[in-house]
UniProtKB/TrEMBL annotation:
GO BP field: gamma-aminobutyric acid metabolic process
Organism: Kitasatospora indigofera
Cofactors that this protein relies on: pyridoxal 5'-phosphate
EC main group: transferase
Signal sequence coordinates: none
A GO term, aspect molecular function: (S)-3-amino-2-methylpropionate transaminase activity
Source organism superkingdom: Bacteria
Record protein name field: (S)-3-amino-2-methylpropionate transaminase
Catalytic function, reaction form: 4-aminobutanoate + 2-oxoglutarate = succinate semialdehyde + L-glutamate; (S)-3-amino-2-methylpropanoate + 2-oxoglutarate = 2-methyl-3-oxopropanoate + L-glutamate
Record-linked InterPro entries: 4NH2But_aminotransferase_bac, Aminotrans_3, Aminotrans_3_PPA_site, Class-III_PLP-dep_AT, PyrdxlP-dep_Trfase, PyrdxlP-dep_Trfase_major, PyrdxlP-dep_Trfase_small
Family: Belongs to the class-III pyridoxal-phosphate-dependent aminotransferase family.
NCBIfam families: GABAtrnsam, PRK06058.1
Biological or metabolic pathway of the protein: Amino-acid degradation; 4-aminobutanoate degradation
Keyword vocabulary terms for this entry: Aminotransferase, Pyridoxal phosphate, Transferase
Length: 451
């Protein structure tokens, strides 16, 4: 059966989860794969399409994870498969730095067009999100001739040495892997739910604190870049209080600092807009993208103001595989799908359904003596619930893990997140049929009741 043959969009459980064949493969994995490479749900996938993952035992699972916000256009989306297959048959690699090809240029043109702002832009392509963030730092340093980089509490930017340093959370991302790169400074973010003086004061106070720390502890004239996710992903889908991002952008502009929006998780229709920055009209100097860009093929990019992007000497940016022709073809298929199927509209609809149902669940469990939903938040198809112990805001990490496990057993892939491990996050493919979305939400509700 070809990879593009549509799978029935249904949940189907024919064994326990994980089933016997998955368990066998997991035993082989433990003997063959490095222990540091963990798996959330050891169900081995044989095919995937639209909103479902089919496993080696014949089970069909509802996918609320999209391989961590990657398969936004659905798994094995038709246009991605068609374009990548055609490219595979034509040629697989030349190295763009040696003998170039059109697909790379076309992806760069699309990114220059779609990303926020109508100024002149340039793009460079890479293989992974972390690599894109590293390159954004390189570019900002060359352009400003400064070294310091400012990042935020709860931020996540990757697992390479530089990006581990940029990432806030120690376990599991940083523990034992230091020393980290120098000249990285972390400042507060406007996290409304946990802002001590209340969510109304959060944006102004957090921005003032962050700016004061930069001025006093680093010196604005030493800062090359400020890097922030417009909605923090691994940190627990934290939407900075409205007004915070514009204040930081304004400060960066006034001080000649390159403002970098890390839209690796939020970009490409995930939040119901092409980019999460669009929501408050933020125009970043540089934007990093990856994940949803190519329908599952590894591709990442830095896009930004021409004068900043062009400041680097020839040969200073690149890599053997960056902008691989098959991945570029996949990206062109994915972007075409986002436009032709109005995936922004689909993400918005997913958001409406999920927020309504999860808020009802929040009410239902308001009086529970086991767990409360402290906050339901997110935009589009990037929605989360933060779970707390009754009577306060103490994170309920163990119950969060137990609820995720209960969902897995019922054939629903969900992920956890958050600095305190107490956030259930939902990232369905944007093509998820509504009946599966509702079935997934029923399973979540059932898991809350049981746990
Ligand atoms: C906001 C953000 N930045 C960077 C990364 C790193 O991307 P990658 O895992 O492709 O290196 C991630 C991955 O989760 C991310 O969510």
């Amino acid at each position: 059966m070809s990879a593009a043959t549509p799978l029935p969009q249904e949940r189907r459980l024919v064994t326990a989860i994980p089933g016997p064949k998955s368990q066998e493969l997991q035993a082989r994995k433990l003997g063959a794969v490095a222990a540091g490479v963990g798996t959330t749900l050891p169900v081995y996938v044989s095919r995937a399409n639209g909103g479902v993952l089919e496993d080696v035992d014949g089970n069909s699972l509802i996918d609320f994870g999209s391989g961590i916000a990657v398969t936004s256009v659905g798994n094995s989306a038709e246009a991605v498969v068609a374009k990548a297959t055609e490219q595979l048959a034509a040629f697989t690699h030349t190295c763009f730095m040696v003998t170039p090809y059109e697909g790379y240029v076309e992806v760069a043109e699309q990114l220059n067009e779609l990303t926020p702002g109508d100024h002149e832009k340039r793009t460079a392509l890479f293989n992974s999100g972390a690599e894109a963030v590293e390159n954004a730092v390189k570019i900002a340093r060359v352009y400003t001739k400064r070294t310091a980089v400012v990042v935020f509490d709860h931020g996540y930017h990757g697992r390479t040495n530089l990006t581990m340093g940029l990432t806030a959370k120690n376990m599991p991302y940083k523990q034992g892997f230091g020393p980290f790169a120098p000249e990285i400074y972390r400042v507060p973010v406007a996290y409304p739910y946990r802002w001590l003086t209340g969510s109304e004061n959060c944006a102004a106070e957090a921005a003032a604190q962050a700016i004061d720390m930069i001025n006093k502890q680093i010196g604005a004239e030493n800062v090359a870049a400020i890097i922030i996710e417009p909605i923090q992903g691994e940190g627990g889908f934290i939407e900075p209080a409205r007004g915070f991002l514009p204040a930081i952008v304004e400060y960066a502009k006034a001080n000649g600092i390159v403002f970098v929006a890390d839209e690796i998780q939020t970009g490409f229709c995930r939040t119901g807009q092409w980019f999460a920055c669009d929501d408050e009209g933020i125009v970043p100097d540089l934007i990093t993208t990856a994940k949803g860009i190519a329908g599952g093929l590894p591709l990442a990019a830095v896009t930004g103001r021409a004068e900043i992007m062009d400041a680097t000497h020839g040969g200073g940016l690149g890599g053997t595989y960056g902008g691989n022709p098959v991945a570029c073809a996949g990206a062109l298929g994915a972007i075409e799908t986002m436009k032709s199927q109005d995936l922004n509209g689909k993400a918005q609809r997913i958001g409406e359904i999920m927020l309504t149902r999860l808020r009802a669940l929040q009410e239902k469990f308001a009086g529970s003596d086991t767990v409360n939903i402290g906050e339901v938040r997110g935009r589009g198809a990037m929605i989360a619930v933060e779970l707390v112990k009754p009577g306060g805001k103490e994170p309920a990490a163990e119950i969060t893990a137990a609820i995720a496990k209960a969902c897995h057993a019922e054939g629903l892939v969900v992920l956890t997140a958050g600095t305190y491990g107490n956030v259930l996050r939902f990232l369905p493919p944007l093509v998820m049929p509504e009946h599966l979305l509702n079935e997934g939400l029923d399973i979540i509700e059932g898991a809350f009741s049981r746990v």
